[in-house]
From TrEMBL:
PROSITE patterns the UniProt entry points to: 2FE2S_FER_1, 2FE2S_FER_2
Keyword Oxidoreductase: yes
Residue span, 2Fe-2S ferredoxin-type domain: 125-213
Xref: PANTHER family: 1,2-PHENYLACETYL-COA EPOXIDASE, SUBUNIT E, NADH OXIDOREDUCTASE HCR
Name of protein: 3-ketosteroid 9alpha-hydroxylase component KshB
GO molecular function list: 2 iron, 2 sulfur cluster binding; flavin adenine dinucleotide binding; metal ion binding; oxidoreductase activity
Origin species: Gordonia otitidis (strain DSM 44809 / CCUG 52243 / JCM 12355 / NBRC 100426 / IFM 10032)
Glycoprotein listed as a keyword: no
Protein backbone atom coordinates (compact mmCIF):
# COMPACT_ATOMS: atom_id res chain seq x y z
CA UNK A 1 0.00 0.00 0.00
CA UNK A 2 2.76 2.44 0.94
CA UNK A 3 4.61 1.75 -2.32
CA UNK A 4 1.48 2.32 -4.41
CA UNK A 5 0.61 5.55 -2.62
CA UNK A 6 4.15 6.87 -2.97
CA UNK A 7 4.39 5.96 -6.65
CA UNK A 8 1.09 7.65 -7.48
CA UNK A 9 1.97 10.77 -5.49
CA UNK A 10 5.59 11.26 -6.51
CA UNK A 11 6.11 9.52 -9.85
CA UNK A 12 4.42 9.46 -13.24
CA UNK A 13 4.14 5.69 -13.44
CA UNK A 14 1.00 3.57 -13.47
CA UNK A 15 0.18 1.04 -10.74
CA UNK A 16 -1.61 -2.28 -11.17
CA UNK A 17 -2.70 -3.96 -7.94
CA UNK A 18 -3.68 -7.63 -7.80
CA UNK A 19 -5.36 -7.84 -4.40
CA UNK A 20 -6.48 -11.23 -3.05
CA UNK A 21 -8.66 -11.44 0.07
CA UNK A 22 -10.95 -13.92 1.77
CA UNK A 23 -14.13 -11.86 1.18
CA UNK A 24 -15.29 -8.26 0.76
CA UNK A 25 -15.35 -7.65 4.51
CA UNK A 26 -11.69 -8.62 4.86
CA UNK A 27 -10.35 -6.18 2.25
CA UNK A 28 -7.87 -4.05 4.17
CA UNK A 29 -7.63 -0.38 3.09
CA UNK A 30 -10.79 -0.65 0.96
CA UNK A 31 -11.64 3.00 1.56
CA UNK A 32 -8.10 4.17 0.84
CA UNK A 33 -8.01 2.18 -2.40
CA UNK A 34 -11.33 3.61 -3.55
CA UNK A 35 -10.05 7.11 -2.90
CA UNK A 36 -6.80 6.44 -4.78
CA UNK A 37 -8.72 5.00 -7.73
CA UNK A 38 -10.95 8.06 -7.81
CA UNK A 39 -7.97 10.44 -7.76
CA UNK A 40 -5.89 8.47 -10.28
CA UNK A 41 -8.38 6.83 -12.67
CA UNK A 42 -5.88 6.63 -15.52
CA UNK A 43 -2.93 5.41 -13.47
CA UNK A 44 -4.32 2.90 -10.97
CA UNK A 45 -5.96 -0.39 -11.89
CA UNK A 46 -7.13 -2.71 -9.10
CA UNK A 47 -7.96 -6.37 -9.70
CA UNK A 48 -9.76 -7.76 -6.65
CA UNK A 49 -9.77 -11.52 -6.09
CA UNK A 50 -12.20 -12.76 -3.43
CA UNK A 51 -11.68 -16.32 -2.24
CA UNK A 52 -15.34 -16.54 -1.12
CA UNK A 53 -16.46 -16.00 -4.72
CA UNK A 54 -13.70 -17.49 -6.85
CA UNK A 55 -11.75 -19.85 -4.63
CA UNK A 56 -8.01 -19.60 -4.11
CA UNK A 57 -6.02 -17.90 -6.89
CA UNK A 58 -4.42 -20.46 -9.18
CA UNK A 59 -1.56 -20.33 -11.66
CA UNK A 60 -3.85 -19.61 -14.62
CA UNK A 61 -5.45 -16.62 -12.91
CA UNK A 62 -2.12 -15.20 -11.84
CA UNK A 63 -0.67 -15.71 -15.33
CA UNK A 64 -3.55 -13.72 -16.78
CA UNK A 65 -3.38 -10.86 -14.31
CA UNK A 66 0.34 -10.46 -13.71
CA UNK A 67 1.81 -9.49 -17.05
CA UNK A 68 4.65 -6.95 -16.95
CA UNK A 69 6.14 -4.70 -19.58
CA UNK A 70 9.90 -4.55 -20.03
CA UNK A 71 10.44 -1.66 -17.61
CA UNK A 72 7.90 -2.66 -14.93
CA UNK A 73 8.71 -3.67 -11.36
CA UNK A 74 6.78 -6.28 -9.36
CA UNK A 75 6.29 -6.08 -5.58
CA UNK A 76 4.84 -9.17 -3.89
CA UNK A 77 3.56 -9.47 -0.33
CA UNK A 78 1.25 -11.95 1.39
CA UNK A 79 1.14 -15.55 2.63
CA UNK A 80 4.07 -17.65 1.43
CA UNK A 81 2.07 -19.92 -0.94
CA UNK A 82 0.54 -16.88 -2.63
CA UNK A 83 3.90 -15.17 -3.03
CA UNK A 84 5.44 -18.34 -4.45
CA UNK A 85 2.55 -18.63 -6.93
CA UNK A 86 2.93 -15.05 -8.18
CA UNK A 87 6.71 -15.20 -8.32
CA UNK A 88 6.57 -18.43 -10.33
CA UNK A 89 4.07 -16.87 -12.76
CA UNK A 90 6.35 -13.89 -13.31
CA UNK A 91 9.35 -16.15 -13.86
CA UNK A 92 7.42 -18.14 -16.47
CA UNK A 93 6.80 -14.88 -18.29
CA UNK A 94 10.53 -14.21 -18.34
CA UNK A 95 10.53 -11.40 -15.79
CA UNK A 96 14.13 -10.85 -14.60
CA UNK A 97 14.85 -11.61 -10.96
CA UNK A 98 16.06 -8.03 -10.46
CA UNK A 99 12.56 -6.70 -11.15
CA UNK A 100 10.75 -9.05 -8.74
CA UNK A 101 10.70 -7.78 -5.16
CA UNK A 102 9.35 -10.19 -2.55
CA UNK A 103 8.68 -9.24 1.07
CA UNK A 104 9.00 -12.41 3.12
CA UNK A 105 8.36 -12.57 6.83
CA UNK A 106 10.55 -14.60 9.14
CA UNK A 107 8.66 -17.00 11.39
CA UNK A 108 8.66 -16.13 15.06
CA UNK A 109 10.48 -18.51 17.39
CA UNK A 110 8.32 -20.66 19.64
CA UNK A 111 4.54 -20.77 19.48
CA UNK A 112 3.34 -17.35 18.21
CA UNK A 113 -0.19 -18.07 19.42
CA UNK A 114 0.80 -18.50 23.06
CA UNK A 115 0.45 -15.39 25.17
CA UNK A 116 3.20 -14.85 27.73
CA UNK A 117 1.11 -14.37 30.84
CA UNK A 118 3.86 -12.95 33.04
CA UNK A 119 1.86 -9.85 33.93
CA UNK A 120 0.06 -10.00 37.26
CA UNK A 121 -3.71 -9.68 37.32
CA UNK A 122 -3.58 -6.18 38.77
CA UNK A 123 -1.37 -5.09 35.84
CA UNK A 124 -3.82 -6.23 33.19
CA UNK A 125 -5.98 -3.86 31.18
CA UNK A 126 -9.53 -4.42 29.95
CA UNK A 127 -9.61 -4.26 26.15
CA UNK A 128 -13.02 -3.94 24.48
CA UNK A 129 -12.81 -4.99 20.83
CA UNK A 130 -15.41 -4.72 18.06
CA UNK A 131 -15.15 -6.97 14.99
CA UNK A 132 -17.88 -7.34 12.37
CA UNK A 133 -20.42 -5.67 14.65
CA UNK A 134 -19.71 -7.97 17.61
CA UNK A 135 -18.06 -6.64 20.78
CA UNK A 136 -16.14 -8.60 23.39
CA UNK A 137 -13.69 -7.81 26.18
CA UNK A 138 -10.37 -9.44 27.03
CA UNK A 139 -7.63 -8.85 29.58
CA UNK A 140 -4.27 -7.68 28.25
CA UNK A 141 -1.03 -7.23 30.13
CA UNK A 142 0.60 -3.82 29.88
CA UNK A 143 3.64 -5.27 28.14
CA UNK A 144 1.61 -7.58 25.89
CA UNK A 145 0.80 -6.63 22.27
CA UNK A 146 -2.96 -6.29 21.93
CA UNK A 147 -3.12 -8.83 19.12
CA UNK A 148 -1.43 -11.47 21.30
CA UNK A 149 -4.08 -10.98 23.97
CA UNK A 150 -6.92 -11.19 21.45
CA UNK A 151 -5.63 -14.41 19.89
CA UNK A 152 -4.92 -15.93 23.29
CA UNK A 153 -8.56 -15.39 24.26
CA UNK A 154 -9.88 -16.89 21.04
CA UNK A 155 -10.81 -13.64 19.30
CA UNK A 156 -10.73 -14.03 15.50
CA UNK A 157 -8.76 -10.84 14.88
CA UNK A 158 -7.24 -10.21 11.43
CA UNK A 159 -3.47 -10.41 11.09
CA UNK A 160 -0.71 -11.67 8.82
CA UNK A 161 2.94 -10.86 9.45
CA UNK A 162 2.83 -9.89 13.17
CA UNK A 163 5.88 -7.71 12.52
CA UNK A 164 4.19 -4.35 11.85
CA UNK A 165 4.89 -4.48 8.12
CA UNK A 166 1.66 -5.52 6.41
CA UNK A 167 -1.14 -3.57 8.12
CA UNK A 168 -3.53 -6.54 8.27
CA UNK A 169 -3.98 -6.13 12.04
CA UNK A 170 -4.76 -2.42 11.85
CA UNK A 171 -7.58 -1.25 14.13
CA UNK A 172 -8.96 2.11 15.21
CA UNK A 173 -8.36 3.17 18.80
CA UNK A 174 -11.77 4.32 20.02
CA UNK A 175 -10.91 4.92 23.66
CA UNK A 176 -7.80 4.82 25.84
CA UNK A 177 -4.12 5.17 25.06
CA UNK A 178 -1.42 2.82 23.77
CA UNK A 179 2.31 2.69 23.22
CA UNK A 180 2.35 2.23 19.42
CA UNK A 181 5.53 0.15 19.18
CA UNK A 182 7.41 -0.44 15.95
CA UNK A 183 5.98 -0.95 12.49
CA UNK A 184 5.96 0.73 9.10
CA UNK A 185 2.51 -0.15 7.77
CA UNK A 186 0.70 2.96 8.98
CA UNK A 187 0.74 6.17 6.98
CA UNK A 188 0.74 9.54 8.85
CA UNK A 189 -2.92 10.03 7.94
CA UNK A 190 -3.75 6.60 9.38
CA UNK A 191 -2.17 7.60 12.67
CA UNK A 192 -4.01 10.93 12.60
CA UNK A 193 -7.26 8.99 12.14
CA UNK A 194 -6.55 6.98 15.27
CA UNK A 195 -5.40 3.70 13.77
CA UNK A 196 -2.92 1.40 15.51
CA UNK A 197 -1.12 -1.84 14.65
CA UNK A 198 -2.45 -4.31 17.21
CA UNK A 199 0.53 -6.64 16.73
CA UNK A 200 2.80 -3.85 18.01
CA UNK A 201 0.72 -1.63 20.29
CA UNK A 202 0.62 -2.23 24.06
CA UNK A 203 -1.78 -0.63 26.57
CA UNK A 204 -0.76 2.51 28.45
CA UNK A 205 -4.12 3.37 30.05
CA UNK A 206 -6.44 1.52 32.40
CA UNK A 207 -8.80 0.39 29.65
CA UNK A 208 -8.99 0.38 25.86
CA UNK A 209 -11.60 0.18 23.15
CA UNK A 210 -10.61 -0.72 19.60
CA UNK A 211 -12.54 -1.36 16.42
CA UNK A 212 -11.56 -3.36 13.35
CA UNK A 213 -13.00 -2.00 10.08
Amino acid sequence: MSIAKYALAHQQCSVELFYANRDRESVIFAGVLSDLARRHPDRLRISHWLESERGMPDAAAVDELCGLDDDDEAFICGPAPFMDLVEAALRRRGTPHSRIHVERYVSLEGDPFTLDRTDSDDASVDVRVSIDGETTSVACGRSTPILDALLSHGVDAPYSCREGDCGSCMARLVDGEVIPGDGVALEPEDIDDGYILTCQATPSSGSLAIEFD
